[in-house]
Every structure is written in structure tokens, then in C-alpha cells.
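Subject: for your reference before the review

Hello V.,

The reviewers asked for a structural picture of the protein, and I figured it would be easier to keep everything in one thread rather than splitting it across files. Below is the amino acid sequence we used in the manuscript, unchanged from the supplementary table.
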Amino acid sequence: MLNKLLLPSCWIIILFTSCQKDLSTKQTVANNMLAAADIQPLNALTGIIDTTNKWYGTYSGLFEEYPVIPDAYLIQNGVAQLPYLDRQFSYSYIYYDIPAQYNISGDSIALEAEVKNPRASSFSDYDVILQLIGEQHTAEVHFVADTEYASYTSYTIGDAQLTGLTELVHYFGTFRKLKLAQKKYYTAVYINNTEVYRFKYGKRNSIGRLKTIGIVFKGYGSCTGVGVRNSSNHNPILSDKFNTDGQSKVTYYF
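And here is what came back from the structure prediction:
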């Protein structure tokens, strides 16, 4: 389980020589990755509840081993948050593994999560991170709260890696909808449906079949709901509002 941890770090900036010439293409391809309007609310739909896989969590930091937290201790009163740990740690991870029977392409989806990480819950930086872990590569966007830590921001898919992005400086002191979308090998990240940053990661960095969703916080961040949609037709794929105390209730819409 613990070998899934992708510890945030300060990556070397890779310069993409094609970035400038791609700007006009990005405008036409990425603008409509996930339109906020005319999307049917997930709570208005019915689907199939996953009875096999559950949300789980863990920590990372100074110790080599940390406990794996099952959903009964992770989900309470509509919120997913790791419980108090009686030892030092840096990051808390909330994970959900996609059942093997579902073939979801990580290159044509949008992950949405309502997240919060106030100063009272963390030690410094108040980082918020989204991960899409695929069979081929992983997509990860890493926010920090303060400009002085901007060098620790990162946006990466495979070996397409960017760091030190001031656009990823944002304080999630209250709940905000954070969205990571992929379409036609472009990626874009949004806060409350406003685009923050995007770039082309290319077919060679394909995520492939989606294996795991990861929501990561510096300290004790929290999440009130997760959804995944098809970024082409905006149809819902899965959701969980964490409204069944102590239980995972991931619902699929196929």
C-alpha cells in the first residue's frame, strides 16, 4: 500500500521549446475541457455503488512506517480527513483505487474535489495536491499557500514537469472546488471553475488506464466530495459525497 506514496518534492524544471508556439492551439483545445454550465448535478443521477473498494488514507514524513487508515476512521459527517496521529508527519494522503473491471482513461477525464487546508490544520505551506495515478504515468498538481514557497509548486504528468509556478500559489482556507482535467493530451487545473494553468503533456506521457485517485494535504486537510467526469462529453463517471458516516459510497454512472 505504502509504495503508492508519491512524496512531493522540488523537481528540476524542464523547459518545453514548443510552449510558445502551442499557445494558440491551447486556446481552442483546452478552453472547453470541462464547461461549468449545463453539467447535470451528480446528486440528480442514480448509479451503481462500488461494494468492493473503499477509500483509505495514510501519512508520510520522518518515519518509515505509518498506519493505513480505513474508511471507518477516515470519513465522518460528510468530510474525509485523516485522524490525529500521535507522531510527527508531513503529508496526509486520501486514496481510492479504481476497481479492475472499470477501464477509465486517465487522459480524457476531469477529477473534481472540494478541498480545504487551513493554517490551523498544517505545519507550514498548507499544500493541497491532486493525483491521478495511471498504469503508464501519474498526473499531479501541487499547490502551496504562500508566495515564499512558490518554488515548491509543481505540475507534472510523466516526465512533463513544471515547477515554481506562481499560478499554483493559493490558500485553501475555506472549501474550494479544485479540478484537474485532461483532454487530447492537454491538462488544465481550475479553482471554482476558473482556469489556473494548462499545458500540453503529449501522448508519450499518457496516463493510461486510471488506477488510483489521490488527494494529498500538508498536515490535516479535508475533502467534502470527489467526482470524476468524462472531459469530452461531460458525463459523470463516479462520485462520492462522503455523506454516509464512516463508509465509502463511491457511485459509478455507466
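For the response letter, the relevant points are probably these. Helices lie at 23-30, 71-74. The chain has a mean pLDDT of 86.

Happy to draft the paragraph if you're swamped.

O.
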